[in-house]
Amino acid sequence: MHATTFAPWEDPEAKPLIRFQNVTKRFGTFTAIDNLSLDIYEREFFALLGPSGCGKTTMMRMLGGFENPTEGRIELSGQDISGVPPNKRAVNMMFQSYALFPHLSVWDNIAFGLRRDRMPKIDLENRVAEMLKLTRLEKFAKRKPHQISGGQRQRVALARSLAKAPKLLLLDEPLGALDKKLRQDTQFELMDIQEKTGTTFVIVTHDQEEAMTVASRVAVMDEGRLMQVATPDRIYETPDSVYVADFIGDVNIIEGTATPDGQDTYRIDWAEGQEPIRATSAHPFATGDRCYLAIRPEKVTISADRPEAAINAVKGKVLDIAYLGNISTYHVELPSGTVIKAQTANTRRISRRSFTWEDSVWLSWTVTGGVLLAE
Amino acid sequence: MRRFLLIAIPYAWLLALFLVPFVIVLKISLSDTALAIPPYTPTLDFAGGWAGLKSFFADLDLENFVWLTQDDLYWKAYLSSLTIALISTVLTLMVGYPIAYGMARAPEEWRATLMMLIILPFWTSFLIRVYSWIGILSQEGFLNQFLLWTGLISEPLIILNTKIAVYIGIVYTYLPFMILPIYAALDRLDESLIEAAEDLGCSRLSAFWLVTVPLSKNGIVAGCFLVFIPALGEFVIPSLLGGSGTLMIGKVLWEEFFSNRDWPVASAVAIVLLLILVVPIMLFQRNQQKQAEAEQ
Amino acid sequence: MRRLSWFNTVSLTLGFAFLYIPMVILIIYSFNESKLVTVWAGFSTKWYGELLQDEAFLSAAWVTLKVAVMSSTIATVLGTMAAYVMVRSGRFLGRTLFSGMIYAPLVMPEVITGLSLLLLFIGIGLDRGVFTIVLAHTTFAMCYVSVVVSSRLVTFDKSLEEAALDLGCTPAEAFRLVTLPIIAPAVISGWLLAFTLSLDDLVIASFTSGPSATTLPIKIFSAVRLGVSPEINALSTVMIGIVAIGVITASLVTKTQKVRQQRDEQEAARAQ
């Protein structure tokens, strides 16, 4: 939806709302952010994704004004904002702990930021009412934070940080404290609110599903560096490193050596006595280069006999079956000892499953089914 | 600027009213007694410039500290303070542990009340709590009346103005300091550990010795220091309950200062007392730190 | 469910008897007709009457109250500042010395604190009286306040302050509008502790007071050195009574608040 109609990052004329220019942040001897450059555009829902300690929270705190970069520039609408204190920035933040003021009612929490701007009373009341409506909290305006549920608290935090109509809203693990079911509903609510208000959202999360669901673009981070910045489908379908492929979703990695074999096609020798695999790649490899084929389990077909037309097919033995209801994942051990996962949708009743433990099966995939990676 | 003021104001206050006075004590302890006002020489003479400063330092010596080692009153007082503080700490532990243990095993709904009952005496005047024992321990006091009435004794016991009265006074007034940390440690103790020990073949008593006591060790150590440290410098209890026969260093210091007006010796007594206290205070700090680290 | 054993019951009973019997005796005998404090001679409130007429006691009580209110208030301000500095200010020059000076007075024997302050006051030629006692009490009480307040600040969610800054507060506004209201209970208990310590203090007050300012503990101490007197019993009863009412009220208030909070939270969870 976004990818077709909304893609300012592909437009060379577009001016970014936020621009990180060669930003480095060190805490003592520890480098949290390592010479990182990144543009984020207006109206984007941008996700910073990575394991804990990867620097995503530091990025967010630098945007909020709670940390300053050691080196480099951070621009907001073209102006350098390093050194500007948080209370002087048109940026608001929704905290992981929500940070609702326990001594103030829901209404007063939402009005808190507006009061600091000395907004006239009537405008303030209208704005708070608008926010309460947006987040469906009208009934709870008089309650204190401890008198409402976790999901409601999350919405108060959102309403409070949106009340000042910031240019940019930062969300630090906004759904981390909610249980799984509530989290899924809230994800759509967040997207809805983001679209209604037209605010640029930057979300920090370690949950890849969450990032994929809500974001227009995802930045995968590791050890203070950006590993890949792209739309969710590109991150999933064409990761540009083993790290990203492995971090997002389930993946089989087959290591081998590449030999060019026609236009953008390569032959991969991956195990002694095994038929080589063929794969396409836009990234050039020279003869003898080390390469990794990343292939998603759902792109691997499992069958009893070798499919006639298959270019890549290997034989193995079913080691384990993980039944997840809608899908099943088969762990198939190849003669080389490598275990490959293959996923099939359970369109039939389980009692009529075609394969079981110890069965000899064939796994196959197309030339374009996997991604060939250099690192 | 604001941050500077925030730090500077309390800092300056403590420097002026804690550190500077302490340096003065140190300085006077190195001075000589004199029949003057103030009753010691040399006094710092800034008008004398560099020479004045030089002669000031030249006049300082360790004479008062030498004096403390020569007059056996002082080292006897230190020694007796140490023994009294040590014995009372052990006694407080023996009285306090069963109470803390009982509190930790009491039903949930009682605990807040029990806790309040332990803290309540802590908020009441220390002086009054010590004073209340005079009427009980004196020769015609309530304890002797009671014991004579039961026929356990035929002559009234002499307790007031002896060391025993001091022990009772210290145990009584410092008991909350012992109970609270032990209770805190026992309260955190997971009941299933005891059950596990019993399941593995311990009797109730050996489960207590092998599980409960070791796991409340931090509380015991903290409680002991919290009693021992203030007991060592105690003044009110020995002077109200201990009589003239009980030597404690806090009392000696007080008398040296108010009765003999020997400021240099009083200062030297104070310095030595502090030096003695440094050891338990450091140990206490270490224990607290270790506990804080273990909790993280 | 844990159950009290026979041993637990006995030790709790004996323990609390030990803690409370002396005070109970004191209270009972404050209503004794006789001047002889250990012999019961009938009920009377005459010692309370005498207490009310004793000018010296009343003026000492007044001095003590003045000192306690002033010193605990200043100590609360300074102690809260010190706690904030200790918990939030990170590194600064002389931080170790600062924290040393905060903790040392807590373990310093009162005789030494008193002696050193007296020597300072004499050294700078300050006349001893209410003012010097206030200075002395403030100094040691601020350390207690700072310990109480900093233990609350340590568990304080720092993102609350950051949220206030984020929503447009200056650091001072963030402290006034968010931090202070939330840590208020700790600040109040710090003040109460400072107040009680000041009311209670004999040794430091004896060193730092002059002939013009006698506090109640000094007065009581000189009286009880001569032995037990029914008038002191009456005074003690009054003081114990005030403290007991205060402590019991405080614990009832916290208990009801806790119960209400728990109920609210349960309801909120159910409503979800």
Main interface by residue count: B-C, 82 and 82 residues
How much of the sequence lies in strands of chain B comes to under 5%
Might you state the CATH topology name of chain B? MetI-like fold
What's the assembly state of these chains? heterotrimer
Q: Helix/strand-derived class of chain B?
A: mainly alpha
- Major β-sheet annotation of chain B: 2 strands, antiparallel
Total domain count of chain B: 1
N-C termini distance of chain C: 31 Å
Radius of gyration of chain B: 24 Å
Q: What characterizes the major β-sheet of chain C?
A: none
| Average of per-residue pLDDT values of chain B | 86
Family (chain C): Belongs to the binding-protein-dependent transport system permease family. CysTW subfamily.
Membrane topology (chain C): Multi-pass membrane protein
Transmembrane segments (chain C): 12-31, 60-85, 97-124, 130-154, 174-194, 232-253
Pfam families (chain C): BPD_transp_1 (PF00528)
Per-chain topology:
The complex is a heterotrimer of chains A (375), B (296) and C (272).
Chain A: H1 2-5, E1 18-27, E2 30-40, E3 45-49, H2 56-64, E4 71-76, E5 79-80, E6 91-94, H3 106-116, H4 121-134, H5 150-162, E7 168-172, H6 180-197, E8 200-205, H7 208-214, E9 217-222, E10 225-230, H8 232-237, H9 242-247, E11 252-260, E12 265-269, E13 277-280, E14 289-295, E15 301-303, E16 312-323, E17 327-333, E18 339-345, E19 360-365, E20 371-373
Parallel strand pairs in A: 3-8, 3-9, 6-7, 7-8
Antiparallel strand pairs in A: 1-2, 1-4, 4-5, 9-10, 11-12, 11-14, 12-13, 14-20, 15-19, 16-17, 16-19, 17-18
Helix pairs in contact in A: 3-4, 3-5, 4-5
Chain B: H1 2-29, E1 32-33, E2 40-41, H2 49-58, H3 63-70, H4 72-105, H5 108-123, H6 126-137, H7 142-150, H8 163-188, H9 191-199, H10 204-215, H11 217-232, H12 236-241, H13 249-258, H14 263-295
Antiparallel strand pairs in B: 1-2
Chain C: H1 6-29, H2 46-53, H3 55-88, H4 95-107, H5 110-123, H6 130-154, H7 158-166, H8 171-200, H9 203-208, H10 216-224, H11 230-271
Helix pairs in contact in C: 1-11, 2-11, 3-6, 3-8, 4-6, 6-8, 7-8
